[in-house]
Amino acid sequence: MSVHATARIVATPAGLPVLTGEGPLALRRTRATGAGARVTVVGAMSAPLSGDRLAIEADVRDGARLTVDAAAATVALPGRPGPVPAEPAHYDVRLTVGEGAELHWLPEQLISAYGSDLRMRTRVELAATARLVLRDEQILGRHGEGPGTLLTRLTVHRAGRPLLDQELAHGPGAAGGWDGGAVLCGYRAVGQLLLVGQEFEEKPVEPRLLGDTAVLTPLAGPGALVTAVAPDALRLRRVLDEVLRAHQTHGSVSAYR
User: Fold this and answer.
1) What does this protein do (predicted)?
2) Type and span of the H or E element at 106
3) Does residue 256 lie in a domain region?
4) pTM of the prediction?
5) In sequence order, which ranges of the chain are alpha helices (DSSP H)?
6) Average of pLDDT values for 195-214?
């Protein structure tokens, strides 16, 4: 039987008036290292499996600061075999960040296990003065296995206008060439780091390579996108974390070398 579950977070400058989880999505308030609140997503059961419909909603109200991370990676798994082909699993993330508010969305990796089929959609609505740090990492297959089918889409609007809209498709259900030299070139870890803030209006970043398998791209708005591929999750995280650390320490992605 498939699982339908939604977790909801509302953050205000005074705290977390709404913090509710369902099914496999348990939410825990954890100690923040800086200003604002911190919430950790804890997997209470195996999910998503074929046919599951999961969602997380986070609303960061005007002037609030929130960090959301996870206790462990999310593993997309195949459902039980049966006479009728299983439906894909769906995982929706809906984020809203108000005026003068800040959201750090830092989940652990999403692992696409062999035989799984997941559609993941992330929608972000930002106010004009909102700040966002969003990390997204996808690992294509567990050790020694091929990936499942994984389709992801990230859509970001700022002040009601499009800032970023991109879609990625991997695995046997995707169009041919996804793992070829022009896309992943055989790598099995792909990720991105999205940074949005008014500092990018004052000083837009210049596009450039970050090592051999990562690139920094300015957005048509106050933001920057780092996209990277790597042989494994550890090396992918290292690249993204080093860029994020430079941004937090120096206020500029350009500080990363």
Assistant:
1) Required for maturation of urease via the functional incorporation of the urease nickel metallocenter.
2) strand 102-106
3) no
4) 0.93
5) 199-202, 233-250
6) 91
